Amino acid sequence: MLASHGAAGSPIPCDKEPATMDGQKHTTRARAMAHRRLAIRFAAAVALSGAASAQVQFSIDWKSQSVSRPDSSSAQRLITEGDILAPAASGAPGALTAPRVVVGGNLLFLQGYGGCVGHAPGTPCGIDIDALSGGADSPLRPNQPQRQRFYFSVDEWASGHPDTPLVPAHASVRNQGNPTVPPFGPGVFEASADVFSDVNLPSPPLGPQFAPRNNSAVLDGNGLASANSFRSFGLGLFEPRPTNTTFPYPGDNLDALEIGTDLATAASIYFSLDSGFLDRANQVNNSNSAAQNGFRGADVLKAMAATGQVAHFATASQLGLDRFGPNTDDLDALALLDNGDGVYQPSLAPYDWLGGGTDMLVFSVRRGSAVINQPDSLFGVPIQPGDLLIPPIAGGLNQNPALLVSAEALGLRTERGSAPLDGDDLDALDIKELPVNDCNENGVEDSVDIANGSSQDTNFNGVPDECEDKVVEFCTCSAGSSATCNNSYATGGCRNSTGVGARLLSNINSGGSVSLALDNLTLTSSQLPLNVQGMVFMGSSSRPPATFYDGLRCVNLPVFRHATANSGAGGTFTLGPGLAAICNARFGASGTPTAGQSWYFQTWYRDPTGPCGSNANVTNVVRVTFLP
Fold this sequence. Notes:
By secondary structure, the chain is mainly beta.
């Protein structure tokens, strides 16, 4: 068990426990045992989980300007389209140096990799990776309370769905994409190096009849302000990539994506290579890297560090591809959840992967694939290169892939049945539950908050304005949160036995400050049940909301527990002023805030007649960034 820290780590004092709300009295021994059990449950519940990494890794295509550019590592490797890259730095918008190579193509056992290092951009060299996964994507679930998001990129010809809105202080495929595909403008040729997220989709399957939704830029290719002044966290790539110039086009195309799994230490890396058929948009053949390595462009491959080889994980035929001949299709984006045995078991219907007997494999196909405009096996609609697909379903309409999420639902342009360019090409994909950027820590991508209008971004820096405050209240239990027993409440924590949610507030607007020198900040726990014991606990990091007694916990391990207090006749108690001094005396240096640090505070309290029956609950969280 991971321990919490400080004097409050001992069981809550029980000899002062008042009568329960129904008036039933306990003996001192019974009360002590009850408190001890709750204290043990508290410590155990806190120890259940921690925050996950949001490491971003990607590849670029062979036409990108960054091919043969020195990377930002100390070794100064020359970047190729067969390398897996990561940003040189993270956590801030703005121009970055070149990405760094985290996994070289030699570790994916690509034939001829050594001879391709240093080749000119725009010249194919047979090592192009165009789909990527660590095999541990978040499982899609029906009617999920904390839903997964689709992260994706598009190529330089994408223009976005014409029915998606153009939102100020917000970047989407439509206002970042290609303005030369009439009548869809007013793009700026920057979408191909960016990463986007869906906005507020329900659980799939979602066919083309589903009303088009917007998408929102999560990561920006170069991190610089776009034409509408929007900025976001950068990847160190080159933008723009205009297609109204002579081929090869300048700029970069992000061609494969993995968020979260550290591929540098992964036992296996799953990927796909490029077919060689004609790209009808630019009238240039694709790189044919799959055939040059002995595979097909619609195969999913698995590179295994332990064996030093690459082999099939899923074949084109298992995915319903290449039905018109070898390399007539190209798998262009990949999200995969391997069930752990390393062998591919195709799903036979949406969500059958939740039983562990099959693997969740979601993919898209490249523009020009033979399967495009063929009817999918679930809805019977023409497949598009912006669609998210799964293998053919059992008892389906045919043996083609099944449509899981339509391009329209992702805010992408389609021309189902009669498209010279086949609609927007989605060419990188990942599925993750944890947001990449979530400064207000509500479990939603910051850019999605801005697109929704639930957060303002008046300085167009991609950061919700409320996050630039020194004191932020979050982890509320409002409608739509994963409340324990449907006990959501509009403000504060989840609803308790008083009928409202308890709230933790600071005095920042009434004379308090975050200055450590003044040390005049107070934290008040209010709307508590009367005459109950509680305590403030704190940590130096946060986590996504997790069920915790009758509420939601968002403070990550390790935690420091302050002394217990009683809510009294007013249902309230206060910690501070003198918070920094209290921390120093109680926890020592490891639990004392210093200038520039952010600490997270939340209150746990007893609630013997609470709505969910756990006998306790928690407030919202207050994040405090301290100043000298």
